Structures are given as C-alpha cells and as structure tokens.
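User: Please run a holo structure prediction.
Assistant: Happy to. Please share the sequence and the ligand.
User: Here you go; the ligand is iron/sulfur cluster.
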Amino acid sequence: MNPSFLPILEDLRLDGTDGRWADRMADVTPQDVEGALARPPGRYSFDRLLILVSPAAQAYLEAMAQQSHRLTIQRFGKTISLFAPLYLSSHCCNICTYCGFSSESKTERKRLSVDEAVAEADIVAAEGFSDLLLVSSEDRHAVNTPYLVELAHRLRDRFSSLSIEIQQLRQEEYARLFAAGIEGVTFYQESYDRVVYGQYHLAGPKADYDRRVRGPEEIAATGMRRIGLGVLLGLANWREETLALAEHGAFLMKHFCRSQISFSFPRLRPAQDVESQQFQHLLGDRDLVQMILALRLCFADAGLVMSTREPAAFRDALVKLGVTKMSAGSKTNPGGYGEETPSLEQFSVDDQRSAGEVAAMIRSQGFESVWKDWDAAFAAAGG
Ligand code: SF4
C-alpha cells in the first residue's frame, strides 16, 4: 500500500471544505512576513508558506525576489532548461469545461500514429531539443501503454529525457513506461478544491477527485525520476491552492525520495469555446510572481516550470526570479510542428517565439539555456 495524501488533505481542510486558511492568511501582518524572510530560505513549513502567500506579503515581493534569485543560482546555477511538448492526440473522453479538447467540443480531432509522432519528434530534435514531453488527451484506446512503450523505444536514443503528460494510468502501467525509458510524469491536480473540481470536470474518468489525488503517489511508487505537480490557475483561489499544492509536494518528497518534484504554473488560457473571462479566480502577474517566489523560498531544490502559455515579456522577467525550466517554440496541437494548416489546439500559446529566440533571450540575461537533461546522463553513467 502506498502512503496516502488524501487523508492529510482532508484533515487539513485543504480540499476546500472550509475557509479557515483564507481567514488565517488575511490575519498575517507585515511583522510576520519580515520574520519569515529573516529566516534562512529554502525549507518548507506550512506556516512559512502561508505567510509568504498571504496578501500582506505582496508588499515584500522585491525582497522575496532577491532571496529567490540567490537561492536558485546556488542550487541550479545560472541555467534555464528548455523542453518541447509533443502533442499526440486531441480525442478525449472527458468533459473538462476549461479545455479545447473537451469531448463536448465538436471540432475535428486528430491523433498521431507512432510513425507520425516519431516524424514530429524528428522536427523537434532538429531544433536542438533533447528533453521531450509527450502530451495527450485521454484517448485510452489509441494512446495507451503499448503505444507509449513503442514510442519510447523509438525515441529514447534521440532524447536525453522523455516525459509524459497524459491521462491517469494504473500504477503498473507507469512502471512499464518507466522501464521503457519514460522518466518523468507531469500530473496536475487542476484544483484541490473538491467542489470546484466537480464544477469543471463534468464527465469521464477524470471527474473522480479522489482517484486524481492518488495519482502522484502511484507514479512515485514506481520510482519515476521526475514528477511535475500543478494546479490550473484561475479555477479557485490561488492562495489556498498553493497551500494544498505545496503540502502535496512536501508529502511526496518525504515518502518518495527517489522522485524529484517540480511545480508548474499553468494559468488558464483561451481555447476553442473557452473564454478566460468566464473564470472568477484568474490571477494577475503580481499574484503569479508571488506564488513562484513563495514556493522557491520554501523548496530550494524544486524545479519551477513555466510554459509558453505566458506572454514573452512576462517569461523574460521570470528568468531571474526562480524559474528553472521553460518550454519554447511549442505547438499544442497534434502534428503541429510539421503541418501547414493548424488543427485544434488544447489552448492558445502566447509566447510564439522560436526555441532559438527564447535561448537568445536567456543568454542576453547572462543565463545559459540547457537543452540536454544532464541528470539523466549522469544517472545512466552511474548505472
Ligand atoms: S484537460 Fe485533459 S482530460 Fe480534460 S478535456 Fe482536456 S485533454 Fe481531456
């Protein structure tokens, strides 16, 4: 039996059943924030994070940014890793009302055969990427474990790192994928608030909140090397979501030390039949920066990942604030790298620059862009 996060989430009322944490954060004073910032950064405690994501801490973003910058350079050097997503399918059996691939959407769908996916991967590799994230909607009968095992076998010699962001699998399926060379899984809870989760996930296997919460521990139990957590920012109050997300990360770090945990920051984006204005909890740039800094100041070694959902200027500003990994030149539709006529995207990309342009921006800030997953190379060398 795996250690289980769900009872912790419920005991702490981080599943949104009570407003106690919003009240506690509203009571945080400037003295509390100064006290938290006076202690050495990098170690998680629930109380410390609660102070750093409170409304009172917004007045201290500059001090938080300086600490985050120093700490990130100490742990990661002046580097930003680059990766590319490769979308495999837009067929989906779930209704998630924020997503362009939701099964209700009447638009034409597309899925790639293994050969077509390899051809797309060749284009991505030719741009210089060595870290590939295979992404799919829940298209279980086509993009399933045998498909992914075959694809991993075809790709693993060309990429230093292969990861997936797909439907939730069973633990034994994750173990098969890990054995086939897939070493990372990105798995967002979307929202830790049980009621909100139910409002946005109307049908399909993903609508099961408890099963979703169990996902990361089942992935970690296989020894998966990297696990990416996140919430979809805009569905619920970001401050309370950050508390739950961090507690989930801390739980995994405590019980599954073989897996490196990272946090991503997907803000809701417009998509087919989805307008951002329909979401009540969209957060502004200062809020998102506060969330990133607060997590860095509590988790010195966590990867912090930023996608092309965000505008170029905002991503540029994040290079020095604690982010360690970025996607670049992304296409969010299956076959998007090779096709001339665009098909249905999961969401619209904001930063449209090529990978080379993003790398040049990183260099211009005195940082180095890293295209290869050196950890994987060292792990392989060590047997
Ligand atoms: S979020 Fe994922 S599971 Fe939900 S509709 Fe979109 S692709 Fe399907």
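The radius of gyration is 20 Å.
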